[in-house]
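[Q] Does anyone have a clean structure-token version of this?
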Amino acid sequence: MFTSILLQMDMSSLSGMLPFLLMFVVIYLFMIRPQMKRAKNEKLFQASIEKGNKVITTSGIHGKISDIVDSDNTVIIETGAGKIKFERSAISMELSKKLQAPKEIK
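[A] Here you go.
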């Protein structure tokens, strides 16, 4: 059955499918793969959070991690106003890494 289908397909039908295959490859390389890589890095960052790290939440709150609660996957952040409990996923990787980076002396 499959051999008869393959014999009926000629080069024109294969060349007609080529743009769709190329479009899928481009979408995978430029959209899907980078998003998967970004999600993996974000997950590793959230797992590497430790007490005493200075962080910034996605809502823009700056603070220092005072406690990590593994049972419900939250962190307690000490801010100027007091202590606030956040989900680990609410901590921004990009902003926290900028905050931890050493300052350049001019």
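[Q] Thanks! Anything notable?
[A] The two ends are 74 Å apart (CA to CA).
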